[in-house]
Amino acid sequence: MGTLIGSLIVSNLISLPYLQWKIRKLSARASGRTTGRPGSKWAKGARPQLSGPACSSRAPVHVTRRERNSSGVSAISCPVFVELPIDVLYPYFMVQKEMVPAKPPKGLVGQGVSWYLENYLANLFAGAWEPQPEGPLPLDIPQASPQQVQRCVEILSRAKRPLVLLGSQALLPPTPSDKLRVAVETLGVPCFLGGMARGLLGRSHPLHIRQNRSAALKKADVVVLAGTVCDFRLSYGRVLSRSSKIIIVNRNRKEMLMNSDMFWKPQEAVQGDVGSFMVKLAQGLQGQTWASDWAEELRQADRQKEQTFREKASMPVAEHLNPVRVLQLVEETLPDNSILVVDGGDFVSTAAHLVQPRGPLRWLDPGAFGTLGVGAGFALGAKLCQPDAEVWCLFGDGAFGYSLIEFDTFVRHKIPVMALIGNDAGWTQISREQVPCLGSNVACGLAYTGYHKAAMGLGAQGLLLSRESEDQVVKVLHDAQQQCQDGHPVVVNILIGRTDFRDGSIAV
Ligand SMILES: Cc1ncc(C[n+]2csc(CCOP(=O)(O)OP(=O)(O)O)c2C)c(N)n1
Ligand SMILES: [Mg+2]
């Protein structure tokens, strides 16, 4: 914990001033995600007028506790923003000096105002000197009841084609990822892994299905949505079959029932901790097996899809490198101790199909809102919290525009992370639909900018991969790794051409 806090404070202090608000917040989020423990951003001087010493009185502690109590953040994990008013950021005597006149005023009005201000001050700091409980607040995590677990056990025991969709919430404490993995393996149900659950089963596990999720959901007779919600990613629930029995588990009731009774209907809606539920489910179904042809059918569909990826990887592209091939080579080269940070449009969505995180809590992406610009902050938090990990960042060139300048930070503070930029000279995910729809590429075009040179200008190492170095991809990746191991941040600028890999997928 000490290291975690130390790393966070360092990450908060070192990023460039004009980006620090955003970058600090993201690095705190990355630390929370990669360690499974809450990360907090220490925000001194969030705005110029707030700069100055942090308060030495107890008032901010008092305010923070009140906020935490009322916001109910313990049930689900999410970023929480707490803004401290300026008048409680400073010590009592400083505020008193600013607020209350030093000499008692003479006139009636002056005395009235003074009386009002003294009262106001007393209210503001009321209770600030009373002892407050130290340490984290006790968490209030809802749990599935034994009856709910039993009903789910019965539903699953009768299933012929069960399927589990595991999402980020499954990785929240208190269940350690190893225990969750054992539970999922014991359960023996084929599963799709999303968010921070990606990588839970390692590489090429027979229960881990990666492709054709919609088709699998249509065929499954029982689906367990374990920390996965029916938002746009599941087509608001429409992707589920009306004849399937749906079990949904989530700590948050509102999230759990999102779009239910409109496009889908749960058979069992369990408001509770996902990891603990999975462990209990596995215990309740110990010894149960399902016909192997269902899992085999899903694996066969995976193999077919992956064969089409191989074909796409070998297709010639009009110019530069084939991104599918490049990403396949990244997948082959990625070390076991890596953390992947992904930030961009089509390039990183392609990577999501081809590159596998090597373990749970090792994949950081922009999340449901797809907010570009998370890369550098995530990389900073990940590397500081897990210094022994190799942090590999996959960027689109458009997204990298938000993160380039943080290479200055990485250089100054000797934070060796690696950025691989899929440079297709554009906001391709947007132009892919904009051009056919509106007939114009306006605001989507970029240039084949020398990002490796820009990084070198900031003092980082820069490498270029282009058509001329087509047979050097793995070598250049190894060179980048070596430079990182020698303590340097590295940018590999990979010039890529166009493929049809992402045609037909969402482009917003
Ligand atoms: C902050 C932010 N701005 C805009 C968008 C919309 N958006 C989604 S993908 C994308 C294009 C990203 O371009 P790039 O990173 O180069 O990836 P590519 O699609 O070219 O591989 C844009 C602009 C967004 N998701 N977040
Ligand atoms: Mg691009």
TrEMBL record:
The Gene Ontology biological process terms listed for this entry are: isoleucine biosynthetic process; L-valine biosynthetic process
Q: What is this protein called?
A: 2-hydroxyacyl-CoA lyase 2
Under the heading Pfam families, the entry gives: TPP_enzyme_C (PF02775), TPP_enzyme_M (PF00205)
Question: Where would I find the Thiamine pyrophosphate enzyme TPP-binding domain in this sequence?
Answer: 343-494
GO MF annotations in UniProt: acetolactate synthase activity; flavin adenine dinucleotide binding; magnesium ion binding; thiamine pyrophosphate binding
Task: Give the gene symbol.
Answer: LOC117309357
GO CC annotation terms, alphabetical? acetolactate synthase complex
Thiamine pyrophosphate enzyme central domain mapped to chain residues? 149-281
Region annotation Disordered: residue ranges?
30-57
Q: Name the InterPro entries for this protein.
A: DHS-like_NAD/FAD-binding_dom, THDP-binding, Thiamin_PyroP_enz_cen_dom, TPP-bd_CS, TPP_enz, TPP_enzyme_TPP-bd
Q: Which reaction does it catalyse?
A: (2R)-hydroxyhexadecanoyl-CoA = pentadecanal + formyl-CoA; 2-hydroxyoctadecanoyl-CoA = heptadecanal + formyl-CoA
Q: Which UniProt keywords apply?
A: Metal-binding, Thiamine pyrophosphate
Family from the record: Belongs to the TPP enzyme family.
- Chain ranges passing through the membrane: none
Q: Which cofactor does it need?
A: thiamine diphosphate; Mg(2+)
